[in-house]
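Minimal example, chain plus adenosine-5'-triphosphate.
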Amino acid sequence: MKQAFLLKYGEIGIKGKNRHLFEEKLVRQVEYALRGVEGQFRVTRPQGRVFVEAESEIDEREVTEALTRVFGVTAIAPCVYMDDTGFDDLAKEVVAYVDREFPKKDFTFKVDARRARKNYPLNSMEINAAIGEKLLDAYPTLKVDVHHPEVMLHIEVRDKINLYATEIPGPGGMPVGTNGRAMLLLSGGIDSPVAGYMVAKRGVTIDATYFHAPPYTSERAKQKVVDLAKQISRYCGPMKLHVVNFTDIQLAIYEKCPHDELTIIMRRYMMKIAEHFAKEDGALGLVTGESIGQVASQTMQSLLVTDNAATLPVYRPLIGFDKQEIVHVSEKIGTYETSILPYEDCCTIFVAKHPVTKPKLERIVRSERHLEDVIDDLYAKAIDTVETIFIE
Ligand code: ATP
Ligand code: MG
């Protein structure tokens, strides 16, 4: 008898070859999530099931918590996992399990057996009846209710047998690694970590680019972004974080372009530089935390002008979210507390009092011509001096 966890996952659209890939990546992400957890584990996938088997003493709550961070998992069922040593042994295990898990024996239950191995001597109905009887003998205060049981006792008979009664919801989505790679523009704010989380949830591997502007932005502002990257990597897996020194480009824009266009021009250069690293890393798109109308640089007109600077598609998973909804997700994934730390970000320093809210592309492009003499060198230098940090 062993303590284990049965992982359930959505199976729609993962037939054939895809299913194999899906399960492989799922196992890899499970192993990654368990790295920081006390104990030894073995992840196995017998017959289209994924089990995490504990090979030592473990803390069930800690393991469950780690598994709720694995995209692709729809539910986690802590279970008893055992070899088939005959029906009497099974019945004993079930009786002991119910004793351990439910100290108060005052509930209604139903046994839901599934015999996937046809040479087992009892069929599913017979297992239900026989186990039900053993439980009622052991705990006469229990009652059977086949329509609305308070406790559903699942018994799956395969090569081995597993037994569980509770399921904890997983995050859903698809395992990271099943859907290509994207470059997240990660700032120290609330939105972009959530945006990265949401794209990773669809199975996309994430790398990140952060623009800082020393000495206008502090070392602590950078550390904050590193911390946010670490926090989302608990879900997304390991990632590269490219830290780009953006000071000279920002100063040049400040010096040579109309001040009400600063933010939008700056955002366009961020896109271009992030795209450079995206292509280097083999990423297929950019990801930002923008949502329509949140600030002047996120009106439909501004987004159009920003988009135009990139050739890769720009994914904005928060596009229709209100701030409150974004905050809600950031609290759930544990980035909120870090995001609200006060350190200045580069956008907050070079901002105009009255930024354009309806920029015209032609006009912005014309303003950018003022940078002609310097921008190629500054752009090359920003890329050459990048600091790449590996986050796990
Ligand atoms: P967030 O949107 O993450 O809360 P913010 O509100 O400071 O940060 P915005 O001005 O809303 O940033 O910027 C919109 C998006 O542009 C961000 O979600 C992020 O994807 C990107 N971005 C802004 N500043 C930076 C930066 N310094 N480094 C990398 N990306 C940035
Ligand atoms: Mg924002």
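Residues 185-187, 189-192, 209-211, 270, 288-290, 294-295, 345-347 surround adenosine-5'-triphosphate (ligand 1) (CB under 6 Å). The first helix runs from residue 16 to 34.
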